[in-house]
Amino acid sequence: MDSVTKSLYIHIPFCRRKCDYCDFFSVPCAKNVPNEYISALKNEISFLKKFYTISSWRTVYIGGGTPSLMTNEQIEDLCSFVAKNNKGDCEFTIEMNPDDITPSLLQAAFSSGVNRLSVGVQSLNDSALQAVNRRCTRETTLKALEIIKQIWHGSFSLDAIAGLVGQNTDEFLKSLAEIISFAPNHISLYSLMIEESTPLYSRISRGEVRYNKDESDEQWLLGKEMLEKRGFLQYEVSNFAQKGHESKHNCTYWHLEDYFGCGSGATGSLYENALRWTNTNDIKQYIAYWTASDKKFLLQTIPRENEELSKEIQEEEFLIMGFRLLSGVSAEEYKRRFSKDLGTRLGAKDGVFHKWQSRGDAKMYIKENEHFYALTEKGILFLNTFLEEIL
User: Fold this and answer.
1) Whether pTM exceeds 0.90
2) CA dist., res. 265 & res. 279, Å (int)
3) CB 4 within 8 Å of CB 55
């Protein structure tokens, strides 16, 4: 493989405690992230970078879990190591929990190459936060947002959730307006998903807490309207940004571009190699392998599950991910990857796409000599139905 730039995801699978709605892989961590885990990450990143002749990272995203459980020294160590050969246009994001944020933590991140924060606020309503077992409070979150406002020099993104139990529509809108007042460049607005493996699902099933999906959807639509009135453009199903502040790293996923996943439980995908892997969830095994004293790392001995990405799987994912974006799917890119005509595949003349287009839920347009098929703002509200019909 020629010397190239790619995207890198780093997983920090540690949390003080799990939120009741979360089904991401993480484990409880009473203290700080183990230093051995940081060493293991650096060795894995070094090995993959050398093996695939990566010259620099185009985007980097440190997610979790809770990356802000790292100490200042660990953040400086890891982020400086990752940023070493990156160019100035690399988008380097780290997720932080509000009650971990201090001026010194932000300074450690920024001085080490991080230029974008992603902060999981979710709500500024204490009853909603308590109802889903969030460890931060309104007070600690407001304090964190003030610190960011005063000293952070990069971009920053905030997360909010519509439909949280313990929060009515008026409280949600008040919270969202307050979040916007801190002038983030980007907001991810999610509608609460009730995953079967979570404590929240069990509590709702037992009737201990009330959840209304219609109310959740209504809150999300009102939140979308508020964001757009305040200058945020929806560019993906759940993501809104001021112009030029769209998440480059997440667009890597949505455009089905290669990304390397490092850390216990992390996933990476190399489409031209038809390969996807998911690292072991056994953190002790992960650390033991990547910190072994002999350091004889081999691709075939890495503790991970590998999956072959057939052209059929890639084509399906290309459509699923591409139609999440308001910009839609490029016919030329589809042709290059799969040697097929996108209009024919979608039924643009007399099939599914034509039906959606005729009622104003889909559109075709040309931009910079490329032909795009996309859902409209109205149509994207019914994305899952559209995908079921075309797949």
Assistant:
1) yes
2) 5
3) yes
